[in-house]
Write a structure and sequence with these properties.
This protein has one helix and 13 strands. The chain has one helix spanning 8-14, and strands at residues 2-7, 16-21, 24-31, 34-39, 53-55, 58-60, 67-69, 75-77, 79-81, 84-86, 93-94, 96-99, 102-106. The strands form four sheets. Strands 2-3-4-11 form a four-stranded antiparallel beta sheet, with helices on one face. It has a four-stranded antiparallel beta sheet with strand order 5-6-7-8, with no helix packed on it. A hairpin with a 2-residue loop joins strand 2 and strand 3 (24-31). The longest helix has 7 residues, at 8-14. Bound molecules: FE2/S2 (inorganic) cluster.
Length: 107
């Protein structure tokens, strides 16, 4: 089911934003005119991915550096402290749709 997330104009200004839909924290991000949605909670220890940085098409958690592909949720780089890598699971992504200037996320 599609749920309203944010106005496209607002996302254009900020590029990434945390929204909560049906109690689920989700980061929506604008990348090369496409909108992506990924769980906002890092699969390592729950850091907010919307507070992280976007590099190419990946989002990097600011806490321990886990990196996820925004399109698939695949782990690009595991969480780590120094050189010690820690188990990091794939993140959940969501389909998005833009209708009349509004971004919708499918849950
Ligand atoms: S909580 Fe995100 S890398 Fe540790």
């Amino acid at each position: 089911m599609l749920h309203y997330a944010i106005d496209y104009n607002e996302l254009e200004k900020e590029f990434k934003k945390k929204v909560v839909i049906e109690g689920v924290p989700i980061m929506v991000a604008l990348l090369a005119d496409k909108v992506y949605a990924i769980q906002d909670k890092c699969t390592h220890l729950g850091g907010s991915l919307s507070k992280g940085t976007i590099e190419n098409s990946d989002v990097k958690c600011r806490l321990h550096g886990a990196k996820f592909d925004l399109k698939t949720g695949n782990v690009i780089d595991k969480a780590h402290v120094g050189f010690i890598k820690m188990p990091t699971k794939k993140a959940t992504t969501f389909r998005t749709e833009i209708v009349d200037g509004k971004v919708f996320v499918e849950l």
